[in-house]
Amino acid sequence: MRSIPFLAALAIPAMLAMPAAQAAQSTYPDKPIRLIIGSAPGSGPDIISRLVADRLYQTWNQRIVVDSRPGAAGAISAELALQANPDGYTWMMLTSQLLVASEVLPNLKFKLGKDFQSISLIGTVPFVLLVNPALPAKSLKELIDLAKKSPGKLRYGSAGTGASEHLSGVLFTRMTGTDMLHVPYKGVAQSIADAIANEVQLTYAVLPAAQPHIQGGRLRALGVTTPKRAPLIPDVPAIAEAVPGYAMYGWYSIVAPTGTPSAVLSKVSAEVVKAVKEPAFGERLKVLGIDIVGSTRAELDAWRRDETKRISDLVKASGAKAM
Question: Cβ neighbours of residue 105 under 8 Å, at least 6 residues apart?
């Protein structure tokens, strides 16, 4: 049997480590933090990141620098984040766009599920099914009937092969038994422009991008992709009202490179959740069409697992190749 002094000696390093970990958590953050995003300045992720950064500065009196690294649907931002020391001072915004890209792009240097740990799911946002006003379909049912009468004749645009907007269309045609021609573009702005010009009859766009064109009458909104209606456009039905079970989301979350101390992740998560659930702060997000979530780390873990499986299945069904 081991002697008591020997066992006590083994316990000393662990006892010393506990106060060190607690001290690190209590002093964190003691320098600026970098939040890397995979979208351009002025985009939804950029706006949300800056709102979160400003709010957390009020709590910690430390700057959170939003580092915009657009390209490859967010893959560049992930590769950059993984080069950083996992000490809690580098975060990344993980979006639905990047998750989709990780299922489509070949030869990536990272695996989202393995290389990034969850902090919090900030919120979700719907895509909107938009049609040219000249299209003789003023409801989802009329669109489905029209598509069934003319298989392969209707064209829908998207931000690119394998993009979330494309998968929204894949899911719609699968669940309605219709056949529409997919027309990929190099971004949602081009897809919207061609829908207005009637080069394609319909398109899908995230709500903030779609709303000005709905309000201006340039495009008609037939449905939103989330299971419930969007508060910003309450008169537009959820696609699920006509196609039960239909659901696609745009979403925004914060993660950090694997290896970041758990105590730090928990502290950041608690503060992010507290911030986004404050009424005044939440109103600023709702103006962007975002449905506030403010999840725990475990809830974001579960969300990522479910969405990864669902999107992987859709990508396979779409036959999407590298964008």
Answer: 72, 73, 75, 322, 323
Both tokens of 64, joined, read: 């959170």
Q: Are residues 180 and 137 part of one domain?
A: yes
> Which range among 19-28, 112-121, 208-217, 250-259 shows the weakest confidence by mean pLDDT?
19-28
Q: To 10 degrees, what angle do helices 279-286 and 44-60 make?
A: 170
Contact 68, 41 (CB under 8 A): yes
Let me know if residue 35 belongs to a domain. yes
Q: What is the DSSP string of 11-58?
A: HHHHHHHHHHHHHHHHH--SS-EEEEESS-TTSHHHHHHHHHHHHHHH
Residue 9 maps to a domain: no
Beta strands in 83-180 (DSSP E): 90-95, 116-125, 127-131, 155-158
Q: How many domains does the chain have?
A: 2
Average pLDDT over residues 213-240: 95
Q: Are residue 210 and residue 264 in the same domain, yes or no?
A: no
Q: H or E element: which one contains 311?
A: helix 297-318
Enter the DSSP assignment of 237. Answer: P
| pLDDT tens, residue by residue, 231-240 | 999 999 999 9
190: Cα within 13 Å, side-chain hemisphere: 8
Q: State mean pLDDT over 243-247.
A: 95
Residues of the domain holding 74 = 21-124+251-318
**Contact at 8 Å (CB) between 257 and 84?**
yes
